[in-house]
Amino acid sequence: MAIAATDATDRVEQLTFLTERLTELIALQAQAFEQRRPQDATPHVEETARLANLYRHESTRIRANTDLVAQAPLALRARLIRATEAFDAVLARQGRALDAARTVTEGLVRAVADEVASQRSSGAGYGPGALAPTPVAATSITLNRRA
């Protein structure tokens, strides 16, 4: 999939619009994770993935051939640069939010696994020939998509 541009000006305008929309969608996702409501990020996942793929494809094409945008007016190219800087900033924000969510999730899973392991190894032996119970290693658990 590629942008169907008629000239450099059209390509820069379309790429600017694409970058601004992608920035908006990723900011919504970051906000959802920051508010600890990851389910709010799901409605736009498909559109975000589609636009991110298009953005990746177009930026690769432009890096390989800067003539695709070189003839566009300076003001439009400056707007695209600003949009790209905002996109980079929101990507960093989303990265921090996802990292925090991952850390919390891993801590919760570890706490549940430790509790399960402690419950399993609570038995004790009786009598002169009884053996001390051997600790059972924590096993992995699976959470459904709604967890």
Give the secondary structure arrangement, pairings included.
Blueprint: H1 8-34, H2 45-64, H3 67-70, H4 74-120
Helix pairs in contact: 1-2, 1-4
What do you see in this structure?
This protein is mainly alpha-helical and 147 residues long. It has helices at 8-34, 45-64, 67-70, 74-120. Helix 1 (8-34) packs parallel to helix 4. The longest helix is centred in the middle third of the chain and has 47 residues, at 74-120. The mean pLDDT is 84.
The name CATH uses for the topology is: Methane Monooxygenase Hydroxylase, Chain G, domain 1
Strand and helix order: HHHH
Could you report the average pLDDT, rounded to the nearest whole number? 84
Q: Structural class per helix/strand content?
A: mainly alpha
Instruction: Summarize the amount of helix as a percent range.
Output: 55-70%
CATH level-1 class: Mainly Alpha
Short summary:
This protein has four helices and no strands. With 147 residues, the chain is an all-alpha fold.
Give descriptors for this structure.
mainly alpha, single chain, Methane Monooxygenase Hydroxylase, Chain G, domain 1, 147 residues, 4 helices, rod-shaped
